[in-house]
Each structure stands twice: as C-alpha cells, then as structure tokens.
Amino acid sequence: MIPNTNSLLEDLPKISREQEDAIANEFPQYAFYKRIKNNIKYYCTSCHRWQKNSSDMRTFSTPTIWKHNQLYTCPYCGKQVVAKSAGRGHKTLENKGHFIVYTAYKQRLYAFVIKAYQSFYNEEFEPDYYLSNQYLYVFEKNHMQRFKWTYDSNLRHNTWHPLKTDKGLPQWSYMTNTGYEDSIAITPKQIYETDLKYSEMETFSSRAYTQIEYLIKYIKHNNLEYIVKAGFLGIANDIVLGLSNSKIIKWKSNNLLKMLGIRKQDINLVKLCNIQELKVYQYAIKNMPNADNIAEIVKIIYRFGIDYIEEIKNLTNLSMNQIFSYAKTIQRLSQWKDYLYMASKLPGGIGEIKPKNLQAAHDRVLAESNFLAKKHQEEQIQNRFKQLQPLLFETNELIMKAPESGTEIILEGKMLQHCVGGYVQRHADGKTNILFIRKKDEPDMPYFTVEVSNDYQIIQCHGYKNEATCAKPDEIIDFEKRYTDFLEELKNERNQRNAVCIKTA
C-alpha cells in the first residue's frame, strides 16, 4: 500500500480525449444505409459523415447489393463497418466492453479500469459513448494502491474508495455476468514514462487483465523483470498465477542463475519449463550436480514426480546417481519401484535391493503380494470407483473403465501378463490411478491398462506382455495422444481453480 493514499487522488490525472477516441475505435463501427435509386447512401460511424456507394467506386470492397448485418470496408476511411439498414431500429443497438487505460503522472502509473458503452439513442446515426469508472490501480516501483469507484453516503455521490488488498481484478462470473479477463489495454506505453519502465510488462503480455496481475507481482519482486527479459515466460506466467513459492525462486538475488537455481549450460532447457518443471530440475541438480544428461533425468522425474523418487531413495538408501545408474529408463525405473514397494510390504521385507534379474524378482513379489491382498482394499477401491469417473475418456472405438475391485486389477494383470496386479494397494490408497482401456465391442475383455498420476500425467500404458511380442496398435497411440490432451485440460481447470482460491484467500 502506498503511504498517504489520499494524496494519490489530489490532482488525479484524467483520461485524455485521445484515449477516449482509442476506446471508441475498439468498438464495432457501422454503415447505416439508405437505398437511393441504383445507389446506396450510408452514414459511416468511422468517417462521421454521409457517403455514397456508386458504380464508379472501384475500390469499394462490397457487392452491388447491400445486406443488413453484412461486413464491408469503407473506401473513404478503410475501416471495416457493419451494414445496418437505416430503418430497422438503430436506437436499440448497444455495445459494451471493459478497458484499462494507462496514464503516467509524477513517475507513477495510473491504471483506470473502465466499463464503456456504445449506444445510438439519438435521432442521428452518430454513436454516443459513456465511460463508467470501476477500479483504479496506482503503481510505484515498490508499492501499489487499489481503489474502487463506489457511492459515498456522506458525500452523496460516487468517489474513489481505497481498498486494503492488493488483489487483482475480479474474474468473469456466470452469476453476475461481470469480469475483466477480456479488458483491452489503452496506451500501455505510458508505463515507459514511469518508475516501472523496466518492468517488461508488455514483453510478458499484451492482455490488459494479465498486465495488472503481472504488475502486482512486479512491485513485490522487481527482479521478476530479469525472468521475463531472459525469456523464461512459462515460469513467469506461473509466478503471476500464484503457482510459485519462495523456496523455488530466490528473490533476494539479482543474479538470474542464482534466482532460478540453474546451471549456465541449462538455460535453454529451463526456458521451456513451467514452475513445476523448474522445481524438478532444481531437485535433480541438487542431488546430481554433475549430471550431463540432466534433460532426460528431469523428464523421468517429472513423469513420476519427486515423491516417487524419494520413495525409492527411502526404500533403498541409495543416492540418485546410484538409482539412475541401475534404472536408466522410464520402464525399468517403474518396474524397479513396483518391485521395491511390493517387497517392502511382504513379511520378509526387501531382500535384494538391486536384483540381477529384475523381471524374475518382480514376478515373485507380485505373486506374493496378490496372495496377501487385504479385504479392506476392496472397500477402498469401490469408493475410488466413483471418484475416478471424471478421468474416464472414450473415442469412437475405445472406452475406459475404472476398476471396481482389487480382483479386477489382478485379473487384468493375469490376462495381459503384466504387473498391474502389484498396484492394487497403491490404487486403493489413492497414490496412483489404474484405469482399463477396452474396445467398445468387447467392453469386458482386457485390452490395455493405463496408470495416471494424481497430477494428470500418463505414467504408463501397456497391453499384452508390455508389448514384448508386438508394437502398440495405432488406435492406442492415437488414444494416448488424445487422452493426454484431455488430461491437460483437466489439469488447467484445476490450476485455474487453485489460482482463484489463492486470489480469494
């Protein structure tokens, strides 16, 4: 909050005529036409005058016959205009929109949030514009103040009321039909005349709504500009959405490498990362500082999650170098982890940490685990059956089913001869999600089995003998691609909900 907030309202800058014209230009423009013999006479709201469309106007990009609501280009001003018959009730025509108007004053950036209306209530065809104040944001390099335009019962008129929070603009609501996500930025370059000129606001986004969110973060952490300027836009976006924490970004440092906790040789790799991938990267180099295949390691860890790797470390007391030396691929790491987890639950515990024949050791503990499956698993899995319905997906040829019992999972593994039977407890505990892919014409016949993480990632998808005897069918490859997109949408919806919760907390 800026000290002495009342002083910000003294000699408050006003929206200029040029800015008002810029707002008007964002609205649709019209050509109200009348037919005169073989020609068209029309009033162009962009030209602000009557024009004629005659046969000698070769540049006029319209057909000879004008149609109501048809889009044309006026040859006089070059503006696209919507044709409106002059006799069809133009007084009911109205448009509205949200705008954020930036003004520089005394090195501060004033962002006026405006709701604007375009109407044609008068007898003429010239549009009227009405601007309604909504919010005002005043930014200094390290401070900000937010105001709301509201009625003051003492003054008996509307005035700017200071707000204590530093929250951003309200999101669009189905209940109130209000929101500012589609706000249009007017004169954003005014920022270059303020103390925020190095903020990189326009580099980050051209969307006005997002710009406000960015500046709120920037005044807290001015070195956010380094992240944006260097091209780490995915990370910057997650920071603005509130998906980061102080442990991931070292804000006290002005050195970009130290801020992000990255090695110089990995800059191009990290530029492609989001905040969660950066967290995985930091975890990887902390445990393997000299790794030269860090991209592959990050890919594997991100696929399974940090907790997954930590479980292996806890089960084996091995270093990450030792872990990735033994399990060099996603498939082998997954099988090894299955083996370790299942063996740890057996009465004798884990016998051999790094078995020479992993497949044989895996099959042995799998058989023992199936034999020792507990009754309460069934109740857990039955409860999870309902919870997993939002994860189900289908195509024209394939459907998905969630298991209703541990027996179903074990039977799936036996018929397809893979290790999903060892996942019964993890599935029951909600640590992972096992789903069945079936052909629509054979819904009860096991076909492929998919494991999905709680972070909406496909961990593995296997059919008979893990495709040891034949390659994955094209329909499964296509299904995986489409299901990945489906899961990404679910993940984005979750992140948006989380972002809303953070903003409203």
Please summarize what this structure is.
This protein is an alpha+beta fold and 505 residues long. It contains 17 helices and 15 strands.
The CATH class designation of the domain at 376-496 is: Alpha Beta
Total DSSP E strands? 15
Content-based structural category: alpha+beta
- The CATH topology of the domain at 376-496 is Aminopeptidase
Mean pLDDT: 87
Assign the CATH architecture of the domain at 376-496: 3-Layer(aba) Sandwich
The proportion of strand residues reads: 15-25%
Amino-to-carboxy terminus distance: 18 Å
Fraction of residues in helices?
25-40%
Q: Outline, from the CA principal axes?
A: elongated
Largest sheet: 6 strands, mixed
Biggest sheet: strand arrangement: 10-9-8-7-6-11
Q: What is the rounded Rg?
A: 31 Å
Unreliable segments (pLDDT under 50, ≥5 consecutive)?
55-62
Number of helices: 17
Task: Give a written overview of the molecule.
It is a single chain. Among the domains are: 305-372, no CATH class; 376-496, Aminopeptidase (3-Layer(aba) Sandwich). It is 36% helix and 21% strand. The chain contains 17 helices and 15 strands. It has helices spanning 17-25, 201-204, 208-220, 224-229, 233-240, 256-260, 267-271, 275-287, 294-304, 306-316, 320-326, 330-345, 358-371, 376-387, 406-416, 424-428, 474-504, and strands at 29-36, 39-44, 49-53, 71-73, 80-85, 94-105, 108-119, 128-139, 144-152, 157-163, 184-186, 398-401, 433-439, 448-452, 458-462. A six-stranded mixed beta sheet has the order 10-9-8-7-6-11, sandwiched between helices. A five-stranded mixed beta sheet has the order 3-2-1-5-4, with no helix packed on it. A four-stranded antiparallel beta sheet has the order 12-13-14-15, with helices on both faces. The longest helix has 31 residues, at 474-504. The protein starts with 16 loop residues before the first helix and ends with a helix.
